[in-house]
Amino acid sequence: MSTAWKSRFAVRTKNIKSSAIRELLKITQKPEVISFAGGLPAPDVFPVARFQEACRKVLEVNGHQALQYGASEGYEPLREMIARHIARYGIKAKAENVLITSGSQQALDLIGKLLINPGDRILVEAPTYLGALQAFNVYGAEYVSVQSDQDGLRTDLLEAPLRTGPKFMYVLPNFQNPGGTTLSEGRRHELVLLADRYGVPIIEDDPYGQLRYEGEHLPPLVVLDRENLRRDNGYSIGNVIYLSTFSKTLAPGLRLGWIVAPADVIAKFVQLKQGADLHTSTFGQMVAYDVAKDNFLDEHVKLIRRVYRERRDVMLEALKKYFPPEATWTHPQGGLFLWVTLPEGMDCNKLFEVALKENVAFVPGDCFYAGNSVNESCRHLRLNFSYGQPEQIREGIRRLSVAIKQQMRELTPTHV
Q1: Cβ neighbour number for residue 331 with a 10 Å cutoff
Q2: Nearest to residue 362, comparing CAs of 379, 384, 393, 347?
Q3: What CATH code is carried by the domain that includes residue 314?
Q4: What end-to-end distance do the CA atoms of the chain give, in Å?
Q5: Count of domains for the chain
Q6: Structure pTM?
Q7: Contact in structure between 125 and 103 (CB atoms under 8 Å)
Q8: Which residue from 86, 358, 370 is spatially nearest to 206, judged by alpha carbons?
Q9: Residue 54 burial (CB < 10 Å; 0-12/13-18/19+)?
Q10: Same domain flag for 195 and 84
């Protein structure tokens, strides 16, 4: 790198690090490696034919509009569709409350731009989504971490961190990435009430909410905020901003996500987005609308649920068959991931090196922790079950068990 350019980088670039997952994906591209590392949807469920037809139709009927600049807020029919779609979950919103973003990762970046000053404390789960930490780090965020368990964020540990006055809390209540855990209904009520009591807003990130394979749907935080606190201004959001995406239900290559927030907050996000990319791809939005309309998305999600449930069950069965009894793991009710806790004394990063020799890969757990809780992470790893075929999942878990048992033997002292 040129020294002259490096000396001119902004101070905030010191907080930027490469995504550990993106770097790992470079290592795991070899065809012989079975990778559980990426959070990749299964390409075999992408509705390619439906996209082909939508692209043809959009270009034939609205080609000039599709290839032109568009509104920063997004394609209005798509925003109206999203508002109708989330209404079934109790979220009251109009098109004016919806901003289309270039993936939900851009939504996280816009939140950082709007809300974070250098040194602001953000309350996050431990562990939490790596992409959110990357987005917030750019703006100089510091973190207050609260432990999670099998029922999600531990609300019994929240009051002391909330008294420190965090700028906002960032929560993934459904099938959390990386843990695969779901915030229980009781804790959802407690979280919303505590947030209101201490005046701390909530960012509710919900990319996986539609991908439930068992159990009953739980109300979003944004809905409980209205119901518990009797907010009734024709719009459901008071203390909560809600995020979601088409990446897990249609295709990640679309790079289409959205923010749902009060109109005055959306207006501020629009100004920030204009400085970033003017607007999200008009063509992509129009194609996504054409693909999703006429209830196609609802039917397609049913297919995704069937496929991913089978793969989750295959992974859980393989873990039970091959892993040593000292290891434990979460049982996700939906989403794409589960979280493994290794036996005492093991190190996930050392295990990764051994696992690569067995041609299997995962994401070490330390990258999912904000700095003040990283020491808790060395025995954890994230596994993705959505991408691989069932036979690959079985074989990959078998290979990983070989690596784990090998490291366990190395940790066991020998006696003469």
Answers
A1: 12
A2: 384
A3: 3.90.1150.10
A4: 54
A5: 2
A6: 0.93
A7: no
A8: 86
A9: buried
A10: yes
CA–CA separation, 397 and 323 (whole Å): 8
Amino acid, res. 344: E
Distance CA 330, CA 242 (A): 25
Supply angle C-alpha 113, 99, 183, rounded to 5: 80
Please give the C-alpha separations between residue 372 and each of 126, 151, 172, in angstroms, as whole numbers: 10, 22, 19
Same domain, 281 and 317: no
Residue with tokens 């790079």: 255
Ordered per-residue pLDDT tens for the chain, 416 residues: 566 888 888 888 877 777 666 666 676 678 899 999 989 999 999 999 999 999 999 999 999 999 999 999 999 999 999 999 999 999 999 999 999 999 999 999 999 999 999 999 999 999 999 999 999 999 999 999 999 999 999 999 999 999 999 999 999 999 999 999 999 999 999 999 999 999 999 999 999 999 999 999 999 999 999 887 655 555 455 799 999 999 999 999 999 999 999 999 999 999 999 999 999 999 999 999 999 999 999 999 999 999 999 999 999 999 999 999 999 999 999 999 999 999 988 999 999 999 999 999 999 999 999 976 555 558 999 999 999 999 999 999 999 999 999 999 888 765 43
Q: Using CA atoms in the order 215, 217, 220, 226, what is the torsion angle rounded to 10 degrees?
A: -130
Angle between helices 48-66 and 282-292 (to 10 degrees): 130
Taking residue 404's Cβ as centre, other Cβ atoms within 10 Å add up to 24
Nearby residues of 406 by Cβ (< 8 Å), 6 or more positions away: 354
Under a CB-based contact definition with an 8 Å cutoff, are residues 174 and 141 in contact?
no
φ/ψ (deg, to 5) at 90? 90, 5
Q: Is 144 in the same domain as 218?
A: yes
Tell me, yes or no, whether 362 lies in a domain.
yes
d(CA 242, CA 258): 8
Residue 224 in contact with residue 271, Cβ under 8 Å?
Answer: no
Q: Output the CA angle 244-246-247, nearest 5 degrees.
A: 100
Q: Name the pairing type of β-strands 121-126 and 337-341.
A: unpaired
Burial class of residue 390 (count of CB atoms within 10 Å of its CB; 0-12, 13-18, 19+): middle
Instruction: Confirm if 250 and 291 have CB atoms less than 8 A apart.
Output: yes
Length of the chain: 416
Same domain, 336 and 372: yes
Is 301 in contact with 210 (CB distance < 8 Å)?
Answer: yes
108 near 131, Cβ under 8 Å? Answer: yes
**Alpha carbon distance 74, 285 (integer Å):** 8
